[in-house]
Amino acid sequence: MAVAIAAVLLGLGAVDLLAARRELHLTALDESARDIYMAAQSALTGLKVRGLIGGLGGAAADAEGEILYFESGGPEAEALLPPGSILEDGHYIVEYMPGPGTVYAVLYAEDRETLDAWGLECPTGRRERLGAGIEVGFYGGKEVHWPEVSPMPRPGIEVENGEELKVTVFGDFSSVEPSGGVRVKLTFEGAESGGTRELDVTRELSGGMELEYTAVLDSLREGENFYSIFGPEFTPGEDVTVRVTAYTEDGSRLPTSTAATVNSLFAYKDEDGTAYIACGRHLQNLSAQVSHIGGIPGARQICPIDFAAGGGGERPGWAEVYPEGSGYMALRPIEIESGDFTYDGGGLGIRNMREEPGAAGDSSGQSSPGAGWSLKISTSSTPPYWGRTSPAG
Known about the structure:
The chain is α+β, with helices and mostly antiparallel strands and 393 residues long. It has eight helices and 22 strands.
């Protein structure tokens, strides 16, 4: 009798031991799924901040709303979770929501056959998987209670397209928990060249988490023109979109951004490529020797230009921005070798323009050296028309 009872007890102990081993194994699989979940969430947050989240895979048939997925071994997984980003060497499926940029759930198995056998139809309940002997780890899904994620305070941007081209970005992020790691960046994208540049301005945040930062994109000061700043990957004279983005390193806030588009050298250019001139810098940028501008069909003046006039503080004039000695910087000679280029002065006038020594001039369509013009266009057809100008005062 004692032998029979011992046998029963031993049998029960073996069953309990087997169940414990299965539970421990499933726990390890769930933890692997959780590790992949965290790594994928970090990567998705990075894509969301850069606006590159897009679609990484197919749609989950049983998902609520827009939930997509991708599998290990595919190009999407290689891009998002490259070798070394996770320690697990098994196989996984990641379901994610591209809208908020969050991972919905992860399924993980040590071998491909097991994962393929169940796929997205795999039960997610732990007891159900244990009871059926399903060796697939799971983390996420409806069991995860998502906290409400608030957006970052939206940063602002102002563009000053005058005697210098400047953008000022600003924002107040004092309401954001500092532990989240507030970050602010500027991105620049050329409309024609497709060139991109990124500038982290987080270091410009004040102790009170306020930001005001000004970047010069084009100036006539030595080494500060658009080409010198952005290099050959951008095209001088193209439109540039400037975007300021605020986000948190830990993804605790949704990123926000504000963008503005401005021409890099002129007031703007029309569809035909004609440059519109509203100040001295725009005029000077017609010189390829100064701005590295390529060929343009013509230019049209849209504002009177007075090199000696002040800008009233908000928009400083030429003389304020480029002082030189007791006066102000002279306009460098502009020579355009083109038989097709035309300049329409619109009768608006250019006043108080100092010319560099040796520059030829023209004041009203007639040859008049020294009359205040440093702009000379050599054409093979008709003489250029400048509009009315007056000599330097």
